Amino acid sequence: MSDFPNCPKCNSEFTYEDRGLFICPECAHEWNDMDTSAENDENVIKDANGNVLQDGDTVTVIKDLKVKGTSSVVKMGTKVKSIRLVFEGDHNIDCKIDGIGAMKLKSEFVKKI
Q1: Contacts for 56 with CB less than 8 Å, ≥ 6 apart
Q2: Which are the contacts of 47, defined by CB distance < 8 A and separation ≥ 6?
Q3: Closest to 54 measured CA to CA, from 44, 64, 40, 42
Q4: Is the N or the C terminus of the chain less surrounded, counting Cβ atoms within 10 Å?
């Protein structure tokens, strides 16, 4: 057969290469040879601007966020230092916010400084 890898989405063997990308004609998935597994995307958390976040980063909240169970609000522009990334659930940042305490945030509501 061919020397090209099977499609990581549908496992089709009919893949071909075009301009450095592998393309699957059955499901139209495109990928390069560096990220042949879908697991690479699962371990990457990005902020609202698409920057990759890492443990220990400092981020800023981009909109007012209500804190469940209280009348407190995390104001837009609040700086959050030393975040910890969590890869389970939809809230993927653990952090401590001054005046509020420990909480979880969604990465789509923060931007990296």
Answers
A1: 82, 83, 84
A2: 53, 59, 107, 108, 110, 111, 112
A3: 44
A4: N
Residue whose tokens read 């089709």: 12
Cα 14 to chain centroid distance, Å, stands at 30
- 10 Å Cβ neighbour count for 24? 21
Structure tokens at 76: 């837009």
Which residues does 18 contact at the CB level (< 8 Å), separation at least 6?
none
In angstroms, the first-to-last Cα distance of the chain is 49
111 residue type, one letter: K
Query: 3-class SS at 33?
Result: coil
Compute the distance between CA of residue 107 and CA of residue 82 in angstroms, rounded to an integer. Answer: 14
Task: Give the strand pairing for 93-97 and 65-66.
Answer: unpaired
What is the pTM (predicted TM-score) of this model?
Answer: 0.63
Q: What is the largest CA-CA distance in the chain?
A: 64
